[in-house]
């Protein structure tokens, strides 16, 4: 009937014989009817299962003949799914594992579990009362635009070998690859003119991964980066984004978390970067396809949370094209009833032509038709869609090659999504069907493609509004792209005009042009995040709120030192340039509100493209010098106390009960301006401690310099051994970052040289492949009391890199997949290692010691089997806390394809020498096999 609808509309049809036309008509009618029969006959439980998965399950059980849908490819026996639930519980997770599910991500906040599940298990999972819906896993993409469209994917081994090679080449060889955006945005001259460098600001990125982070650090392209534990991801777009930020704001601290574990994990990581890692500026370049254009979904809600807390948030506008350049694959507008029935059971097709005629198909360009995700959203509230729309993809002969026809009856999301064939096709076209309910405002997007007139007479219809999802959140900045240097190196599609070039080595001007692939706005939104209608009773083209998107434009087409990102095109590259400029603004104006920064950006941007604010470039392209001048930026001091040193009454560094000691407190100015009138007030919340004097002047401390003063600290005679003296150092100076307060713990008592070892004596524990659940072993400590030192060893009798070795502490192929943590009885968790080791196998006789200098992340495949002593990512020892109780060593595998087990580990704890007892030097006590001597 869909093909019949085209004939009825009087449109040109393929040049085939009449008999063949009838065949195409019958084919479309038969196949859509077969699909609708499945939908019409679904049980309540089956309605909770993604329609594509349900059809595959029915084809496997032969309750649906595969011959009825010859264009639908058979899927694998397992599917990656997102299980949306009422509440995440341990019981639910355990039941899923017993049903054969391999858990990939768990989010309690979003009530979502990602897992790889046998198709045959789907009905039983969906039966559960705590399961709301089982969806094909929501997929994501970054906004990187590739010049080379050939498949250049590396195998896991090839990537490990490349990174190993690059790391060896980088050691001792410093490079300086600077983004052309630094010059094009006038950021280089702005830093000199205003004396600001990003000091005092933490800028953090979310993308795919930071595989080459250690390579960039070894080259001198990046400083240390705070990567959330277990969230390093896979890929290197994050590394390239961090290099851009560092080029423009070289003294900003940096952080990272992957956005690619799942949509819910992305939302969780946004919040963690703000509320746990304390990031001031956050930037991402990711879109999940389920993100609603019409209401802030879980990711946008996370953006709302962090911006409400004062963070600045930047996101790529996207590379989905725009109407002005004829590059769009986006259509939105009110549903227009074509009057044409679709299939045997119910539904009418949407008429894309509207008042201009009748056309129920939207044609996809043949040149960009391979593996394209296509989404359909409509203006019902999330979780309460009572109007039911379906999406079909057909070829020119009427075969249904993909579809999405979930049930919406009041409790589901207004969303359907399909993908074009892996290798594309010719004459592919989309049909939107209103299965039941009221007419609604629709949004149809083919990510990475283009709607284009077909060879058989179908006209392509596109509208502005390709910016969707969390980039459209009210307080987020959606960032468009303009080339900084050379033009994008290929036509977007055959026959396209030349791509624009950038101004480098000059700066952006009114003559600059946006990239032809940059997504346009605006964004119409109908509901608040909680589902409240913005314009009650009107969810059509005359209702809702229209948000200006994108707001600003920044550089792409720049160089980085990261393999595969030279040059780096796309709004993925533009967003970190904007974030870096914001970091400079905050650095020179601490405490400036997000609304003030937004005003500065919009008021000073250089207008490009259409006069005034437009839906392609927003207010225009940023120039750092203009923004900094508008905000009145100036070099700020940033003076902080450093780690104090103790000189006891006998000249040693030990502090005992009753001692009066000299405490030397350094204060370093890490800022851009001189710290004038610097002083320190040193206090202690520890009962009975006295400090003389309470305050001292440090005078003026120049940038990069350190001032030192001595204080006298007296410890009460009744202070318990192992209970530290806590010092609060409040540093004040003339500047907006003042005061800076730091807290330090000074151990009381003589650390015992006796290291007691507590070995895990249980069975071998398998580490689940690619699962956040990980594998854990208990380490029970008793008879120690407060610990002066804690270290962990991964043991083993005979070290070898052989797979499945039984004589090592941890046997695991591709150690780079692993993250190790240690949790104390008090609940504090230290990250021991994440990343490092490349494709090498097995850890054996490895010690993680807080006093070591080398991180495990610096190791490569050639170092396997891994031995030696390494510094943990975060310290293991907790001052003043009893070591007695159960510690937990946990190992998580963060990538698929490699497996292993925990076999032999030990915790080594030093206490304190009892009062009146001489130290028994070099003694080691164990509760298990003898381990390597620890320093």
Task: Walk me through what this model shows.
- This protein is of the alpha+beta class and 935 residues long.
- 17% of the residues lie in helices and 28% in strands.
- Strands 7-8-6-9-11-22-25 form a seven-stranded parallel beta sheet, with helices on both faces. Strands 13, 14, 15, 17, 18 and 20 form a six-stranded antiparallel beta sheet that branches. Strands 43-42-38-46-35-47 form a six-stranded mixed beta sheet, with no helix packed on it.
- A hairpin with a 5-residue loop joins β40 and β41.
- The protein is globular, with a radius of gyration of 31 Å.
What are the key terms here?
935 residues, alpha+beta, seven-stranded parallel β-sheet, six-stranded antiparallel β-sheet, 28% strand
Number of alpha- plus pi-helical segments:
15
Strand portion: 25-35%
Shape: globular
Q: Give the integer mean of the pLDDT values.
A: 93
Structural class: alpha+beta
Counting DSSP E segments of at least 2 residues, the number of strands comes to: 47
Q: In which order are the strands of the major sheet placed?
A: 7-8-6-9-11-22-25
Q: How can the largest sheet be summarized?
A: 7 strands, parallel
């Amino acid at each position: 009937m869909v093909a019949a609808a085209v004939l009825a509309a009087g449109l040109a049809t393929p040049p085939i014989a009449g008999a063949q036309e009838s065949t195409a008509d019958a084919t479309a009618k038969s196949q859509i009817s077969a699909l609708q029969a499945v939908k019409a006959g679904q049980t309540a439980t089956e309605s909770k299962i993604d329609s594509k998965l349900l059809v595959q399950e029915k084809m496997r059980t032969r309750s649906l003949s595969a011959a009825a849908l010859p264009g639908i490819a058979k899927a694998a026996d397992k599917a990656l799914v997102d299980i949306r639930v009422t509440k995440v519980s341990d019981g639910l997770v355990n039941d899923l594992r017993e049903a054969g599910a391999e858990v990939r991500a768990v989010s309690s906040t979003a009530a979502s579990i990602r897992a790889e599940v046998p198709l045959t298990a789907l009905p039983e999972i969906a039966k559960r009362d705590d399961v709301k819906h089982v969806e094909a896993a929501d997929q994501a993409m970054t906004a990187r635009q590739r010049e080379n469209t050939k498949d250049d994917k590396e195998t896991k081994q090839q990537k490990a070998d490349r990174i190993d090679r690059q790391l060896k080449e980088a050691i001792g060889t410093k490079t300086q690859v600077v983004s052309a955006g630094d010059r094009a945005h006038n950021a280089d001259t702005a830093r000199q003119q205003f004396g600001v460098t990003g000091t005092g600001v933490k800028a953090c990125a979310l993308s795919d991964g930071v595989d080459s982070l250690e390579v960039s650090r070894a080259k001198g392209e990046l400083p240390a980066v705070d990567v959330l534990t277990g969230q390093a991801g896979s890929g290197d777009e994050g590394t390239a984004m961090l290099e851009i930020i560092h080029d423009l704001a070289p003294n900003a601290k940096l952080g990272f978390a992957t956005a690619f574990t799942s949509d819910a994990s992305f939302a969780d990581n946004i919040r963690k970067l703000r509320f746990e890692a304390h990031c001031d500026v956050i930037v991402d370049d990711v879109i999940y396809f389920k993100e609603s254009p019409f209401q802030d979904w879980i990711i946008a809600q996370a953006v709302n949370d962090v911006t409400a807390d004062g963070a600045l948030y930047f996101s790529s506008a996207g590379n989905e094209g725009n109407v002005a350049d004829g590059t769009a694959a986006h259509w939105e507008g009110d549903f227009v009833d074509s009057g044409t029935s679709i299939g045997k059971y119910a539904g009418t097709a949407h008429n894309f032509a509207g008042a201009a005629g009748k056309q129920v198909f939207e044609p996809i360009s043949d040149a960009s038709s391979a593996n394209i995700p296509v989404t359909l959203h409509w203006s019902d509230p999330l979780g309460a869609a009572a109007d039911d729309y379906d999406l079909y993809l057909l070829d020119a002969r009427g075969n249904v090659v993909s579809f999405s026809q979930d049930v919406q009856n009041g409790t589901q999301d207004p969303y359907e999504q399909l993908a074009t064939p892996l290798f594309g096709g010719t004459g592919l076209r989309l049909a939107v069907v209103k299965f039941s309910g009221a007419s609604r405002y629709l949004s149809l997007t083919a990510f990475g493609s283009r709607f284009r007139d077909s060879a058989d007479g179908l006209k392509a219809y596109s509208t502005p509004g390709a910016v969707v999802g969390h980039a459209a959140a009210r307080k987020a900045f959606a960032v468009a792209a303009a080339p900084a240097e050379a033009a994008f190196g290929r036509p977007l599609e055959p026959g396209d005009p030349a791509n624009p070039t950038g101004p480098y080595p000059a700066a952006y001007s009114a003559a600059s042009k946006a990239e032809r692939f940059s997504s346009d706005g605006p964004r119409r939104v109908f509901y608040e995040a909680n589902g409240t209608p913005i314009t009650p009773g009107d969810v059509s083209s005359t209702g809702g709120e229209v948000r200006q998107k994108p707001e600003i434009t920044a550089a792409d087409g720049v160089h980085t030192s990261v393999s595969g990102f030279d040059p780096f095109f796309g709004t993925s590259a533009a967003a970190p340039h904007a974030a870096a400029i914001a970091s400079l603004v905050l650095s020179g104006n601490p405490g400036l509100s997000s609304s003030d920064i937004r005003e500065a950006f919009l008021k000073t941007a250089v207008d490009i493209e259409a006069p005034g604010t437009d839906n392609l470039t927003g207010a225009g392209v940023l120039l750092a010098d203009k923004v900094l001048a508008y905000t009145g930026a100036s070099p700020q001091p940033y003076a902080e106390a450093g780690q104090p040193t103790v000189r006891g009454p006998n000249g040693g560094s030990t502090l005992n009960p009753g001692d009066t000691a000299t405490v030397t407190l350094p204060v370093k100015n890490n800022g851009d301006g001189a710290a004038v009138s610097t002083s320190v007030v040193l206090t202690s919340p520890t009962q009975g401690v006295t400090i003389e004097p309470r305050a001292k002047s440090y005078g003026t401390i120049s940038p990069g310099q350190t001032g030192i003063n001595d204080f006298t600290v007296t410890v009460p005679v009744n202070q318990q051994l192992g209970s530290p003296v806590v010092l609060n150092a409040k540093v004040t100076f003339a500047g907006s970052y003042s005061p800076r307060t730091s807290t330090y713990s000074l151990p009381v008592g003589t650390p015992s040289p006796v290291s007691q070892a507590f070995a895990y004596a249980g069975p071998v524990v398998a580490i689940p492949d690619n699962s956040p659940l990980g594998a854990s072993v208990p380490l029970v400590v008793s008879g120690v009391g407060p610990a002066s030192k804690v270290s962990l060893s991964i043991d083993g009798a005979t070290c070898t890199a052989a797979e499945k070795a039984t004589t090592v502490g941890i046997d695991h192929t591709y150690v780079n997949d692993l993250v190790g943590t240690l949790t104390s009885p008090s609940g504090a968790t230290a990250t021991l290692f994440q990343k490092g080791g490349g494709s090498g196998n097995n850890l054996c006789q490895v010690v993680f010691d807080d006093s070591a200098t080398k991180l495990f992340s610096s190791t490569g495949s050639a170092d396997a089997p891994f031995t030696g002593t390494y510094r943990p990512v975060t310290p293991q020892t907790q001052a003043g806390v009893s070591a007695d109780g159960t510690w937990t060593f946990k190992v998580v595998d963060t990538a698929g394809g490699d497996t292993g087990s925990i076999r032999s580990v030990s915790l080594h704890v030093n206490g304190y020498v009892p009062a009146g007892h001489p130290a028994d030097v070099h003694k080691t006590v164990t509760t298990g096999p003898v381990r390597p001597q620890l320093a």
